[in-house]
Amino acid sequence: xxxxxxxxxxxxxxxxxxxxxxxxxxxxxxxxxxxxxxxxxxxxxxxxxxxxxxxxxxxxxxxxxxxxxxxxxxxxxxxxxxxxxxxxxxxxxxxxxxxxxxxxxxxxxxxxxxxxxxxxxxxxxxxxxxxxxxxxxxxxxxxxxxxxxxxxxxxxxxxxxxxxxxxxxxx
Length: 171
Known about the structure:
The chain has 5 helices and no strands. With 171 residues, it is mainly alpha-helical.
């Protein structure tokens, strides 16, 4: 009789814990769904604001920069969308693969032309050193996202360690 009571108590506790876990998971999913992703325009605005702040531009130059940078990002997105392709090449014919390669060259050329066009626009109100710093800040943001994922915590993930290049790893 005592064993039966103990087992019933354990069973009830196990069920209660399982119900709490399911409820917590459901609440977490609802909270995640409630957060909307920023639109591409909002992302461009946030990126322009961040880079302008890091460049320490005066108010007048900052406004010109943000306006030009957002247009630059919009034009880059248009090129990306123009050249969307299927990633899987298993079912592609030789002609499809060749077209994909040639389209890649066209995309690179369009991006290069766009970079030159906007360099000239930025150059009207910024010096080459600031433009170079802008490009560095822009490329470092992409590297941080690739290296650290969506957390943006700045900390390596997956057991990686920040070690200076060229030093031997301890054994």
